[in-house]
């Protein structure tokens, strides 16, 4: 296990280097010179020169790339061009609000999706199954922005069921503001998850061991809960585990519209203000999380399916 | 059974989420919406309007603008009175108010956290900090080349890599604890305006030393409100509580008859701040901001472009649903201008005035104002917006009267009949939807003349980099007043300010420069106004910009919101606001 882990971690080094190079070149091409943006409309050439030197922008590109690599390794991404705050602090401060929304929303989505998938797979081919699949497709087809606009305008403003938006620093106070965005998250994600989980479960129902179980006279309910669910967990766990690291990155639109100061909202602001160091940091972290996510998935495989061996 | 358990759990979560442990909010709390996240609470770094507004709640400078008077009038803030001048008008002496205390803060270790008294040295420290190259302040321009010895002090700091705050600067002297002397290199009519800006606000050295990089989130000023740091977040909500040690400042007693009729003098003579708390909730998206206002969660709001039709009729009046809610509308012209810039550094445009005039004449402001501003703007005739001395309401710019036929004739005279022979013009714009739509309008207008443009769509840093490096033929831009003096607009055409300075059309005219330099020595007199108007006439004829529009701000207030008056320049306005608690249930 340890050797496997070490080998996988070593594999990530060239991937990370490649990703870093692509990110660096990309942002160098589209980033523009940030000095004028940072110094404001009254900047003079002397200030521009000083700041360019301060930021290392007068250095050769290779030096700038190695400086960026150092940032990746040390998790010190410098300062935001827009807010001038240390980016690492911005990221650390944004994780809490993002997770406050993401954890309950993700948990609820996964639980509901598994329950609904089992239910419709049990009634496969019937009008219940077909109806749920149609609903899933409809749910997936509606953009999240539509849910947000409907939720804020109708559920919150017209009917007063939830606060329209907002956020509090204190933990119990902030929960009231999380309910509606979390429900929207569930609505947006449920369709895709149910369709995927349902297919994974149905694949298992066609396996030989299910036929054997049926021929032994076991009840359909028992087969589903005891055997099918357990075996269909491999693709489901893969799907779920790979998403977990991304929860840290927050939900762009939800955070922005509900005023939640998480990483999604920070990223949207960085896009709007062309704050490239923040975007560069978020892109790099995104890649890192993806690599970690796939590694975690491989490890979880062995736990879910003992047939899988780490070699 | 399980379903009951799940339901119980869901109810418990909702009940838990509904219970709050926050302190009870005072009834006299003003709630407003912030439209952008607050970048900093460090006065030296406030390059944007929104950070400036928040800084103005807790920091103060020597001078401020009168809340009610228009045109804007400068009055003392932390200065006891307006400064006295030497005979040559180069030395300003400020008497500072005695007994003004900084807010209590752990940074004041000598007094066990009790705020110490403000002294003249605090201003010297604050001004030097703006000049310190390490601070990277956007406000250095207010002192640059103006205060005797300050540029040399800055140069020395750049050379040595560390600013020596103990080293005296000839132009900044504390004569005694309460007397500050500022020596200027030459008289400046605008310098007092600069001192009203957030860059010139007083900060205590102890706070900068203690909080270091975190000073931007730990404000310690002398102002009317104190930040509730525990419950505030610069990205979502700022809670400002009344400063219990705030100096004695009274609500102004002098205002116009219009102010009296609007109830803006009802609190005359009352001690400030009037509200017990101010809560600024930040929503960068329009919909939640607007819905919260309509739900009565905010006490005043600007009207977003997309919600304009829900509020206003076609004849620019409040709809009956709004008047039934007793909402009040304030319309206030903004001190700004939007424009199409011609890059005169490019010979095609720079050497062909007729071409510029023809283009200017081909862009019709009326539909442009309807399309992009819901009618909330007036066509600009020159660079000076209404509300500033030098603005001439009778001025009719002949090249801003839309006339396609005349424009075509002029284009022919310019050497490009129906645009033939004219190369494709490079037009720079931003990538946002609104800018792209505005660009399409310009493309269509110029297309009607036979002029083709190639659109370069940029991110903001790329856009600024292009114009600072004189790339492209044309671009749309806007300028908002830093201070209420037409000079702030006219300096945009001074030849010594060409790119990367603020004169990004790279306009240069010796006659204009001469008049501009002459105006700098004059205070606000009819002679100066006449000079300004003469300069505007030169600009109208030379046409370095297509003068586009001056925007008008529309603000809605609930009846319980008292003393709101739109003030574009002054940041320290929240101290005048209060809630009529009998009307807000």
What is the fold's blueprint, element by element?
The complex is a heterodimer of chains A (311) and B (585).
Chain A: H1 2-31, H2 35-39, H3 45-54, H4 61-74, H5 87-122, H6 127-141, H7 144-158, H8 171-205, H9 208-215, H10 220-243, H11 252-258, H12 263-272, H13 276-304
Helix pairs in contact in A: 1-4, 1-13, 5-8, 6-8, 7-8, 8-10, 10-13, 11-12, 12-13
Chain B: H1 2-18, E1 29-34, H2 49-58, E2 63-65, E3 74-76, E4 84-85, E5 91-95, H3 120-131, H4 150-160, E6 172-176, E7 179-183, H5 191-194, H6 205-211, E8 225-227, E9 237-242, H7 257-261, E10 277-282, H8 286-294, E11 300-302, H9 308-311, H10 320-324, E12 328-333, E13 336-342, H11 347-350, H12 353-362, H13 365-373, E14 377-379, H14 404-413, E15 425-430, H15 433-449, E16 453-458, H16 460-468, E17 474-480, H17 487-490, H18 510-520, H19 526-542, E18 545-557, E19 561-562, E20 578-579
Parallel strand pairs in B: 1-10, 15-16, 15-17
Antiparallel strand pairs in B: 2-3, 4-5, 5-7, 6-7, 8-9, 9-10, 11-18, 12-18, 13-17, 13-18, 14-18, 19-20
């Amino acid at each position: 296990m340890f050797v496997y882990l070490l080998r996988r971690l070593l594999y990530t080094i060239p991937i990370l280097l490649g990703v870093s190079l692509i990110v660096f070149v990309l942002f160098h091409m589209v980033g523009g010179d940030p000095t004028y943006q940072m110094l404001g409309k009254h900047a003079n050439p002397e200030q521009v020169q000083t700041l360019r030197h301060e930021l290392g922008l007068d250095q050769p590109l290779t030096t700038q790339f190695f400086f960026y690599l150092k940032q990746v390794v040390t998790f010190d991404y410098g300062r935001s061009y827009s807010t001038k705050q240390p980016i690492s602090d911005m990221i650390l401060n944004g994780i809490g609000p993002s997770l406050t929304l993401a954890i309950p929303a993700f948990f609820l989505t996964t639980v509901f999706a598994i329950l609904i998938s089992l239910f419709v797979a049990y009634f496969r081919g019937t009008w219940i199954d077909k109806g749920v699949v149609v609903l899933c497709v409809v749910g997936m087809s509606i953009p999240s922005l539509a849910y947000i606009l409907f939720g804020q305008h109708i559920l919150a403003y017209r009917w007063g069921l939830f606060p329209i938006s907002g956020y509090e620093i204190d933990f119990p106070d902030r929960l009231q503001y999380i309910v509606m965005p979390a429900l929207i998250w569930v609505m947006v994600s449920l369709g895709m998850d149910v369709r995927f989980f349902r297919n994974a479960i149905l694949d298992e129902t066609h396996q030989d061991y299910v036929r054997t179980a049926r021929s032994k006279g076991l009840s359909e309910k028992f087969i589903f809960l005891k055997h099918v669910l357990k075996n269909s967990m491999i693709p489901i766990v893969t799907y779920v585990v790979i998403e977990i690291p991304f929860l840290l990155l927050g939900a762009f639109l939800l955070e922005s519209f509900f005023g939640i100061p998480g990483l999604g909202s920070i990223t949207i602001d960085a896009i709007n203000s062309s704050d490239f160091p923040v975007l560069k940091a978020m892109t790099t972290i995104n890649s890192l999380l993806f690599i970690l996510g796939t590694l975690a998935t491989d490890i979880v495989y062995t736990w879910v399916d003992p047939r899988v061996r780490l070699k | 059974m399980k379903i009951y358990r799940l339901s119980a759990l869901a109810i418990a979560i909702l009940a838990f989420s509904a219970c709050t442990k926050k302190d009870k909010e005072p009834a006299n709390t003003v709630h407003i919406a912030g439209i952008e996240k607050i970048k900093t609470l460090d006065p030296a770094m406030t390059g944007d309007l929104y950070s400036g507004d928040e800084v103005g709640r807790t920091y103060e400078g020597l001078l401020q603008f009168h809340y009610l008077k228009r045109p804007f009038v400068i009055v003392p803030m932390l200065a006891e009175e307006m400064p006295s001048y030497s005979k040559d008008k180069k030395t300003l002496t400020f008497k500072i108010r005695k007994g003004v205390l900084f807010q209590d803060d752990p940074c004041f270790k000598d007094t066990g956290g009790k705020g110490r008294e403000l002294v003249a040295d605090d201003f010297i420290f604050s001004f030097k900090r703006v000049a310190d190259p390490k601070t990277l302040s956007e406000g250095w321009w207010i002192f640059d080349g103006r205060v005797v010895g300050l540029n040399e002090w800055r140069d020395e700091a750049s050379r040595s890599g560390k600013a020596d705050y103990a080293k005296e600067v000839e132009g900044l002297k504390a004569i005694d604890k309460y007397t500050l002397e500022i020596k200027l290199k030459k008289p400046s009519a605008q310098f007092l305006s600069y001192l009203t800006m957030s860059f010139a606000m007083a900060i205590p050295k102890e706070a900068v030393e203690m909080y270091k990089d975190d000073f931007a989130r730990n404000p310690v000023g002398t102002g009317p409100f104190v930040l509730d740091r525990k419950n505030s977040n610069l990205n979502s909500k700022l809670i400002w509580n009344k400063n219990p040690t705030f100096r004695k400042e009274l609500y102004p007693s002098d205002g116009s008859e219009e102010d009296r009729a609007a109830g803006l003098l009802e609190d005359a003579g009352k001690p400030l701040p009037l509200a017990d708390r101010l809560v600024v909730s930040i929503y960068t998206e329009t919909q939640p901001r607007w819905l919260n206002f309509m739900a009565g969660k905010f006490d005043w709001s600007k009207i977003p472009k997309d919600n304009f039709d829900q509020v206003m009729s076609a004849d620019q009046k409040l709809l009956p649903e709004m008047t039934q809610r007793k909402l009040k509308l304030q319309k206030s012209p903004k001190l700004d201008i939007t424009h199409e810039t011609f890059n005169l550094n490019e010979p095609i445009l720079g050497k062909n005035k007729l071409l510029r005039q023809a283009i200017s004449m081909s862009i019709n402001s009326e539909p442009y104002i309807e399309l992009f501003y819901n009618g909330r703007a007036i066509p600009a005739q020159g660079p000076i917006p209404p509300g500033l001395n030098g603005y001439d309401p009778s001025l009719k710019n002949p090249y801003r009267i839309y006339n396609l036929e005349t424009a075509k004739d002029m284009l022919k005279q310019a050497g490009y009949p129906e645009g033939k022979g004219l190369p494709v013009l490079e037009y720079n714009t931003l990538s946002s939807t609104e800018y792209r739509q505005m660009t399409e309008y310009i493309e269509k207008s110029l297309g009607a003349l036979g002029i083709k443009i190639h659109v370069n769509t940029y991110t903001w840093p790329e856009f600024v980099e292009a114009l600072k490096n004189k790339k492209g033929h044309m671009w749309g831009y806007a300028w908002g007043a830093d201070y209420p003096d037409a000079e702030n607009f006219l300096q945009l055409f001074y030849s010594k300010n060409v790119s990367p300075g603020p004169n990004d059309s790279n306009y240069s005219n010796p006659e204009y420069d001469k008049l501009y330099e002459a105006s700098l020595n004059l205070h606000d007199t009819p002679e100066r106004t006449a000079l300004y108007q003469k300069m505007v006439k030169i600009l109208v004829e030379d046409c370095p910009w297509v003068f586009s529009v001056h925007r008008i701000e529309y603000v809605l207030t609930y009846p319980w919101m008292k003393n709101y008056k739109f003030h574009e320049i002054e940041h320290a306005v929240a101290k005048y606001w209060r809630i009529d608690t009998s009307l807000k249930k």
